[in-house]
Amino acid sequence: MATHTTKMLIIGSGPAGYSAAIYAARAMLEPIVVQGLQPGGQLTITTDVENYPGFRDVVQGPWLMEEMRSQAEHVGTRMIWDTIVSVDLESGSPFRALGDSGDEYIADCLVICTGAQAKWLGAPGEMALGGKGVSACATCDGFFYRGKRVAVIGGGNTAVEEALYLTNHSDNVTLIHRRDSLRAEKILQERLFANPKITVLWNKGVGSFEAGENGMLHHLALTDTVTGEASTLEVDGAFVAIGHAPATELFKGKLPMDESGYLLTEPGTPKTAIPGVFAAGDVTDHVYRQAVTAAGMGCMAALDGERYLAARAHAVQEAEAAE
Ligand SMILES: Cc1cc2nc3c(=O)[nH]c(=O)nc-3n(C[C@H](O)[C@H](O)[C@H](O)COP(=O)(O)OP(=O)(O)OC[C@H]3O[C@@H](n4cnc5c(N)ncnc54)[C@H](O)[C@@H]3O)c2cc1C
Q1: Contact by Cβ (8 Å): 253, 273
Q2: Of the residues 50, 114, 141, 242, which should be mutated to test ligand 1's pocket, given the most ligand atoms within 8 Å of the CB?
Q3: The CATH classification of domain 3-118+244-322, taken from the options 3.40.50.12780, 3.30.360.10, 3.65.10.10, 3.50.50.60
Q4: Low-confidence residues of the chain, pLDDT below 70?
């Protein structure tokens, strides 16, 4: 068991964490990134990424994250494969965190980039067909289904927004919901019902995602939640939109969160309620949830962290001079 001391501890290794690390390392803060159980974050479980700036052609998610990791290491970041299991924020800076390995981390400032995970139905075929017709992000993958038949599964705001977004690409969008009414806001529902490209299938649960001979999604096996009647729906793409879970368990009771568990920050900044603790990426963003926005917030957190440390050092110097 070891103790690691750093000016900036970055928890999480998705686009937010790696971008924060690149900026912090180049500011000579010698950051440590604790990578967590999913080094590289959510993009490591997808294939084609076509909307991250800088690449004319489609790139693969795991490759993109490997490049970000290499870049962060190249400029001086220390990567540690560990998972933070507890943090002490109460006593202020330096902050202390404990890793699953038993290692302790002591940091002058903290950048939280623990991301979020899409919730899945847990139905057969769902995971196996990920990237082969099944997705949890219409903004990310809708473009790949231009002119094709797509379904969205869910009944809340996200599901309705995803269905509406998909009508930019497809004239054949089916929203599948297991109840007979939606939870989404009224204004969204009005837009949904007024859109001729969208059909709603009420009272239907998705039992499984079935592949065709080519190994791609072919149809959904449905069950009527009222009558129990079985049916199928042939689709090229299915978007599971039943919500996301931010990875904030660690910070419960320690940092302000919204009712869904997203960390709250000062509007337009990555600053949390505790000076020296910053949050960036999907852990604080339930609206955009993109790699590029997470990377942008990671950059902002590192820059604000650097300013926080500089102001603190300046205050100490002034106090010493006054003695
Ligand atoms: C299937 C899929 C496809 C997608 N496709 C696209 C796309 O094409 N384009 C796009 O822009 N976006 C896409 N996204 C969204 C994009 O992946 C996310 O917006 C982005 O990864 C968020 O980055 P992040 O750094 O905030 O968090 P994440 O990528 O979620 O990373 C979180 C990190 O935190 C770590 N972590 C969590 N808890 C701890 C802990 N206790 N201790 C240490 N580490 C911890 C994890 O190991 C992980 O490394 C896709 C998402 C999914 C699920």
Answers
A1: no
A2: 114
A3: 3.50.50.60
A4: none
